[in-house]
Amino acid sequence: MTSSIVEAGLAAGTVVASDEYRISRADLVRYAGASHDFNPLHWSPRVAAAAGLPGVIAHGTLLLGLVTRLLTGWLGDPERLDELTFRFVRPVVVPDDDVTVALSARVAERQPDGRVALTVVGSVEGAGTVGRGRAIVRPPD
User: How far apart are CA 114 and CA 37, in angstroms?
Assistant: First the structure.
């Protein structure tokens, strides 16, 4: 099983998925409506400043949704995603003119049962890493 994973290009360190996602304030409003999370930290610059934040921030669950979108896009089937943990290092500030979040997933290790552990990293230009996670997946055939 291990050799087929390596042959499929899944050696440790291989980037299996990466993409960039633009997030706007309008996206935050739409997400707030869909998720029923109307916390003003996600839409009010005044409230965000009062909380000590540098600006309006993206919902963590919105970002986690983008991570899931990245992984399932590569996997082709959401049922191949067995585990996902993600820790936010810093908030993603969304200025008036949008922000781009770059996500990438890299093979961390092959597991004896044929699954693959991935390291997932989210970053924003100028802010560096905003989140890091680990996923356990059953790779596509």
Answer: 38
Q: Which two tokens stand for residue 78?
A: 């959401």
- Output the CA torsion sign for 84, 137, 15, 6: positive
Integer Cα distance of 18 and 47 in angstroms? 33
Domain ranges of the chain: 2-24+59-137
Burial of 2: CB neighbours in 10 Å, binned 0-12, 13-18, 19+: exposed
Instruction: Give 10-residue mean pLDDT values along the chain (141 residues).
Output: 48 95 96 96 96 96 97 96 97 95 97 96 92 96 79
C-beta neighbour count of 42 within 10 angstroms: 22
CATH hierarchy code of domain 2-24+59-137: 3.10.129.10
Alpha carbons 122 and 104: distance in angstroms, whole number: 7
pTM: 0.89
